[in-house]
Design goal:
The complex is a heterodimer of chains A (about 425) and B (about 475).
Chain A: H1 22-37, H2 53-56, E1 77-81, E2 84-87, E3 97-100, H3 101-107, H4 109-115, H5 126-134, E4 138-144, E5 154-160, E6 163-165, E7 167-173, E8 178-187, E9 194-204, E10 209-217, E11 223-232, E12 237-244, E13 249-258, E14 264-271, E15 278-287, E16 293-302, E17 307-316, E18 324-333, E19 339-343, E20 346-348, E21 354-362, H6 366-374, H7 379-392, H8 401-417
Parallel strand pairs in A: 1-5, 4-7, 5-8, 6-9, 7-9, 8-10, 9-11, 10-12, 11-13, 12-14, 13-15, 14-16, 15-17, 16-18, 17-19, 17-20, 18-21
Antiparallel strand pairs in A: 1-2, 3-4
Helix pairs in contact in A: 1-5, 3-4, 6-7, 7-8
Chain B: H1 3-16, E1 29-30, H2 37-47, H3 51-66, E2 90-91, H4 105-113, H5 118-123, E3 127-131, E4 134-137, H6 142-146, E5 150-153, H7 154-160, H8 162-168, H9 179-187, E6 192-196, E7 206-211, E8 222-227, E9 232-240, E10 248-250, E11 253-258, E12 263-271, E13 276-286, E14 291-298, E15 303-306, E16 309-312, E17 318-327, E18 332-341, E19 347-356, E20 361-370, E21 378-387, E22 393-403, E23 408-417, H10 420-428, H11 433-449, H12 454-468
Parallel strand pairs in B: 3-7, 6-8, 7-9, 8-11, 9-12, 10-13, 11-13, 12-14, 13-15, 13-16, 14-17, 15-18, 16-18, 17-19, 18-20, 19-21, 20-22, 21-23
Antiparallel strand pairs in B: 1-2, 3-4, 5-6
Helix pairs in contact in B: 2-3, 3-9, 10-11, 11-12
Classes of the chains: A alpha/beta (about 425), B alpha/beta (about 475).
């Protein structure tokens, strides 16, 4: 590892691109100031309870450097290698804006600025969110105009070698539009220690539908921190699925704001930590209007000495009556040394609310294994099948076929690797 | 009466004119306002504490002073407590009473004002009533002492029964556990010490009534209950307090020890007046195959923070918390449970139901901890919240940590309202809306109320009816 070759991202403020507009350059400077003045999160901070803060060790990372050659990613995808665009797909439908973050800043200034980094990071990572803002971002800006249905999914691949990258996925779906976005995080090799400090903001205006998959499968030397938001308007719907398969240490912070009547957000996640992987997830379902619904299902399958942390909160504002909000975290522990921490939470300030949360932690039932073995399936295969079934169950809640099949393939591949 | 205590009495009487309390107080000893090493020395001198207790108190005082308020997770309301405006020790200095007739008339009048019926007062003959910080009345049933059971106040316990008392005192809840357990350790007075010898099953529940009746006077009871191998005990604690104008602080520490195969049940009905901060630390240790149950009901106080815990230290130990909370206007019931599994095949169960009325807020905070290298641990947690009015609030913050694959835990929480159909149905049959509401709420907690002894469950139903008055319409 040659982490010391480039200066730490914690110490050097990267230069802004020359082509960046003035407002962006200023925003980055201010963000750097805030980043340096905010304290590092500590174990006594409630949003970081149970987190393996020592395992993060983020300060050693320098910015990822450009690499030679191509990676041969999906030809229909935007491909970023070490934070740099290396490939773009054929232009999209008319009227739909799909471009890189830096292009958006130059070409769609006013529109882009309204949504760029407009959400805070209330779940503990404000410092890192400021670092993201202060840095050069990779990733795409997607803008779908009123009434437009984008047929093909927009696919973005981030390949990470050594060092830090700053992916950003900003999706804005106008009234009654529909779009599917898939983010893939991949490592260039098995050993390079990368750090993906990413953001995703999904905006769905009245009646819009947004489907989102974030499939993270970085190598075990890498870290990932993702701060995301779903901002859902009246009658709109955002469905997101986070797959956490790789990384030595990963953390997701995902907030849903239900801003208009009949808004719905589905938040789904599957994590399969093995070895000494740690997977930390914090969520927030904020119901700000009447008749809103949200449903959260996070499932973790834990092997070896892995660890999962789930901290979730449903907040129902005063006056957000007739809210339906659910939150479920299920841990399946498959080894004697794995550990699962669950902190589901509710804060209800309104009336006529139906809310529940549940958290379970358990192991595979011996009867289930016996049943499969009695039908000629060897014990280890039986266990793997049961664990796979447990994880695949989450995908049933997904309406987008492409996300469903991509996630299923990724999960099957992960379980096939395990034995 | 010596000279010093006479002047102290004079000061105490002068201060007492501030409250709206009408009974003359006869506080022979009063440590004055505020807390310092001198206060602790004063308490030690008055109580004639042995040296080890004095050291224990002083060490705890230093911990109290060093520890910050836990406001990084708890309510900011805690910051309104002014520790300098609290009197840390008061006592009428008389020996614990042995029979009802010897109880002074003004104390009897307090019972009267609290509305305890005549029959119940007679029943209270088996009761140790806490008046100010010393047990003003204590009549242990002969039958109980014949069985070898020790039932005394904690001051007597630490002096007369040091060999049983000292090994467990401060061991279940160390002074450094939290800021308020440290405070209690520094200034504790009153509370009970109970020891049940091996194999003895105490058939009648032992009771203690605690009452605050001095303005700005916090009660710092210290209770230690040890139930030896194979023994069984049920202990009941009920609190009621007259209304005062400024906030009072109540910070008790209750330690329970259940030895092998023992069963210990601790029942609390808390109904402090709505200006009391009730910050209590309660924990039990359950050894092999022992069972510790906390049955807890919180109706009164301005802010209650109470998370009864069970450390399941021996194989097959069981822990249980059954909790009812009712939060009305201006109240915050922040309750919960802490289940620490420290041996194989231990099981714990938490059932919590809360009702928020008006602008009341109820919170459930839970911790379940199952460490490495254990097997067969099971936890079940259920919390249900009922919101009555549109400004009622409820929160749930459990934390469940499980290591290893030989356990099962489940947590479920739900929030709901009284269904309009139910109310409508009952109104159709001639009940008023308020009656229908009361009935519905009583139905919500009914399965838990049944866990309380009969006289308590009757009282509870009455209290719920009372709290529901005026919550509709």
């Amino acid at each position: 590892m040659s982490l010391t070759a480039t200066p730490s991202i914690f110490e050097v403020h990267p230069d802004c691109e020359d082509s960046a507009p003035v407002w962006l350059a200023e925003a980055r400077n201010e963000a750097w100031e805030r980043f340096t003045s905010l304290p590092m999160p500590g174990p006594k901070d409630e949003p970081w309870r149970f987190a393996g803060i020592r395992k993060m060790a983020l300060e050693g990372f320098g910015a990822a450097q450009a690499v030679e050659g191509s990676v041969g990613g999906d030809e229909n995808a935007f491909v970023f290698v070490n934070n740099r665009l290396t490939q773009r797909p054929k232009p999209s439908q008319n009227g739909v804006i799909v471009c890189t973050i830096s292009e958006a800043a130059e070409q769609h200034g006013e529109l882009f600025r309204r949504f760029f980094h407009a959400q805070g990071a209330p779940l503990g990572s404000e410092k890192f969110q400021q670092l993201h803002l202060a840095s050069k971002q990779s990733g795409v800006f997607v803008f779908v105009p009123r009434g437009t249905v984008v047929e093909a999914p927009i696919v973005v691949e981030h390949w990470v070698g050594e060092g830090a990258v700053f992916p950003y996925t900003l999706v804005v779906a106008e009234e009654n539009s529909e779009v599917t976005v898939i983010d893939r995080m991949r490592s260039l090799d098995d050993t390079g220690a990368g750090f993906a400090l990413g953001l995703f903001d999904l905006y769905a205006a009245e009646g819009a539908h947004v489907h989102y998959l974030r499939s993270q499968n970085l190598n075990l030397a890498s870290r990932s921190l993702a701060v995301g938001s779903s901002v859902v308007g009246r009658g709109a719907d955002v469905k997101s699925l986070l797959l956490n398969l790789g990384c030595g240490w990963s953390r997701n912070e995902h907030v849903s704001y239900l801003n208009g009547e009949a808004a719905n957000s589905d938040m789904l996640a599957v994590s399969i930590p093995t070895g000494e992987q740690e997977c930390d997830q914090r969520t927030f379902q904020h119901h700000r209007a009447e008749h809103t619904t949200s449903d959260l299902l996070f499932k973790n399958v834990l092997y070896d000495k892995s660890k999962s942390v789930f901290g979730g909160l449903i907040l129902v504002d005063e006056g957000a009556h007739h809210t339906d909000a659910y939150q479920t975290c299920r841990n399946l522990i498959l080894s004697d040394t794995a550990e699962a921490h669950s902190m589901p939470g509710l804060e209800i300030n309104a009336d006529q609310v139906r809310c529940s949360h549940g958290a379970t932690t358990g192991q595979i039932g011996e009867e289930e294994v016996f049943y499969l073995m009695a039908r000629g399936i060897p014990g280890p295969d039986a266990r793997r099948l049961i664990a796979l079934g447990f994880a695949l169950d989450v995908l049933e809640k997904i309406s987008d076929q492409r996300i469903q099949s991509e996630a299923a393939t990724a999960l099957e591949a992960k379980f096939a690797d395990l034995f | 009466m010596d000279k010093e205590s006479q002047t102290v009495t004079a000061i105490a009487e002068e201060k007492d004119t501030v409250g709206d309390f009408t009974f003359p107080e006869r506080n022979k000893f009063d440590a004055g306002y505020g807390l310092s090493e001198a206060t602790v020395d004063y308490i030690c001198d008055v109580k004639n504490d042995p040296d080890w207790v004095r050291d224990f108190r002083k060490k705890a005082l230093r911990i109290f002073e060093e520890k910050p308020m836990p406001t990084h997770w708890a309510t900011k309301d805690l910051e309104t407590i002014n520790f300098d405006k609290i009197r840390y020790y008061l006592s009428d200095g008389e020996r614990p009473k042995r029979s009802w007739d010897e109880v002074p008339d003004d104390i009897k009048e307090t019972f009267e004002r609290l509305g305890i019926p005549e029959q119940e007062r007679a029943f209270l003959a088996g009761v140790e009533a806490q008046f100010d910080s010393e047990a003003a009345y204590s009549n242990v049933k002969d039958a109980v002492s014949e069985q070898g059971v020790i039932f005394v106040n904690s001051a007597e316990g630490l002096k007369e029964h040091e060999e049983v008392f000292r090994p467990w005192f401060g061991k279940v809840i160390p002074s450094s556990d939290n800021k308020f357990s440290a405070l209690n350790s520094a200034v504790f007075s009153g509370g009970s010490f109970i020891y049940v010898p091996p194999g003895v099953k105490v058939t009648h529940p032992l009771q203690a009534y605690f009452r605050i009746n001095s303005e700005n006077f916090g009660q710092f009871e210290r209770t230690l209950i040890i139930v030896d191998e194979g023994a069984e005990l049920t202990y009941m604690e009920g609190c009621t307090a007259p209304k005062f104008e400024t906030a009072t602080l109540h910070s008790a520490v209750v330690e329970l020890v259940a030895m092998k195969d023992a069963k210990l049940q601790y029942i609390t009905v808390q109904n402090w007046s709505s200006n009391v901060f009730n910050l209590v630390t309660k924990r039990g240790i359950a050894h092999e195959n022992a069972e510790v149950r906390w049955i807890d009901c919180n109706i009164g106080s301005r802010l209650t923070m109470k998370y009864p815990g069970v450390v399941m230290k021996g194989k097959g130990a069981r822990g249980e918390v059954v909790s009812i909370a009712l939060a009305n206007d201006g109240q915050h019931q922040d309750t919960g449970a802490k289940m620490i599994h420290a041996a194989d095949n231990t099981t714990s169960n938490v059932v919590s139901k809360s009702i928020s009325v008006g602008e009341g807020r109820s919170t459930y905070r839970g911790q379940v901890h199952i460490p490495k290298h254990l097997k067969g641990c099971v936890n079940n947690t259920e919390c249900d919240a009922l919101l009555i009015n549109s400004k009622s609030k409820t929160d749930t913050y459990p934390a469940i940590s499980v290591k290893g694959n030989k356990h099962a835990t489940q947590h479920e929480a739900s929030v709901s309202q009284v269904s309009e159909e139910q109310i409508f149905y009952m109104q159709q049959r001639g009940l008023s809306e308020a009656e229908a509401m009361s009935l519905s709420v009583n139905g919500f907690v009914n399965d838990l109320v049944r866990e309380f002894p009969m006289e308590y469950s009757v009282e509870l139903k009455r209290l719920i009816d009372l709290e529901m008055e005026g919550s509709v319409g």
